[in-house]
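REQUEST FORM: STRUCTURE PREDICTION
Request ID: SP-0412
Submitted by: Lab K.M.
Chain count: 1
Length (residues): 332
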Amino acid sequence: MPNADVRAFAAANGATAYDIPDVDYSHVGPECSFDAFIRRHELGHPALDALAKIVRAADTSTLDRSAQAPGLLATSLGLSAMFADDHAMLKWGMLVYDSLYAWCRDAQAETHGWYPEKLRAAESRVSSVEPAAPVAPTRAEAFRYWLKLGFVSFGGPAGQIAIMHHDLVDSKRWISERRFLHALNYCMVLPGPEAQQLATYIGWLMHRTWGGVIAGALFVLPSLVLLIALSWLYLAYGDVPAVAGILYGIKPAVVAIVLHAAWRIGSRALKRPVLWVIAALAFVAIFAFAVPFPRSSWRRRSSAASAGASPRREFAGGRRAMARAARRMRPR
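STATUS: Completed
RESULT:
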């Protein structure tokens, strides 16, 4: 039955919909419908927990996480091939589940030359090495997160990227580490603000066009509101010592955010010595020798030279203009 028809059929027949999005018994991230059933009805028991691990591995294509999962999957597929009627299939399928539950509860000590403790040790090693599968958020959860991010993304691109990495990869597990770094590398190559591009791209990965539009818009609009509010505060009360002190106190906090972000992302992305050497050379080239980055700076320099202006004079004029603007903004 198509997913779109399941709710209506369940309501018409007094049944419970399951295995479709946004219902009580469904897949949520690395968990399957069996996990949802146990959690909703608070059926805590060691044998059920062991059975849930087998079912989860068979139902989420992670067969290496349980030695019994391939057998359960093969049996389920065989029953589906034998019975065209779901009720007949479930009659025999429940017997399989009952036998697995009985084994989890009472029969694990009987091995007949089979050593499940070795398999459990191997499963434990796999579980400790492999990260949990990403959890797909709902649209409402994604909207709330992108809105919050727009209000708290201090520290420029480095700080914003670090916040997204902490939230999306480590905390919420909405995207894998590998996918995040791949998206970051992709956005760094493109012209424009890489942090906003990264947010837009991740939003698109999770919810396609809707997600990209929402992530990109909410990344900018709340920050714009805050910028307008802070600008008004500075213009209206910039001469008040307390306000000036608060604004100056933000500076070291932002520097700390940027340094922490650089270390956090760098330690995840630079996994080989050669990458650390390349990163160090890039830092020296940009900081000590003023090598322009990104490539748009080269294009600006080339266009200035073709127009008859000195590239060095152009950049010197830009630095002087920035210095004058900074002096005007300095509290008196």
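NOTES: The two ends are 72 Å apart (CA to CA).
Reviewed by: T.R.
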